[in-house]
Amino acid sequence: MADILYTYKNSVYANITNKCNCSCTFCIRSQKDGIGSADTLWHEKNPSKDVVLDAIRNYDFTGFDELVFCGYGEPTCALDTLLAAAKIAKEEKGLRTRLNTNGLGNEENGRNIVSELAEVIDSVSISLNAPDSARYQEVSRPKYENGFDKMVDFAKKCKEKIKDVKWSIVDVLSNEDIERCRQISENTGIELRIRHFT
Ligand code: SF4
Question: Residue 105 to residues 88, 141, 167: CA-CA distances in angstroms?
Fold first, then answer.
């Protein structure tokens, strides 16, 4: 059975769904089954909201102060579970909450979800992945048209409502593309984090 909660470095991660609306060329799902303390992150069946909530309630978070929604899938594809899980992580466990997302949650859910996220999520990290729409389509392969513009719009909306919002890219991009991503970061006032590709 797949792990819903696992630890990696200094954080606890919640793997609430394997669903995703992208098919990124570098997705870690195509390279290994587990990360950190998890042997496998592939759910046989995506867990129900109640199963996820129970997992959080029963987990010993001693020594950890943050729960990160990440895992082998896009958390906003299970929005109802994400919102409920983040709420109990904050209210019952006293944790900070972070969402790692591809930024397509508004498209996925057919509405602007940022206000709902802002109530229970303390920080958001959005995968920028590419410096323009054409490269984004090649690398992230979203199931929506204009995914890049939609992701940028989501990031800007998050910036209006959530204090800690960052973009992330992996260092497999060319120096030129990284520079262009830095430019987007400067223009939007959203900090850019460059992650090492593992
Ligand atoms: S958005 Fe994340 S989970 Fe989805 S394909 Fe890309 S890297 Fe994988």
Answer: 21, 15, 15
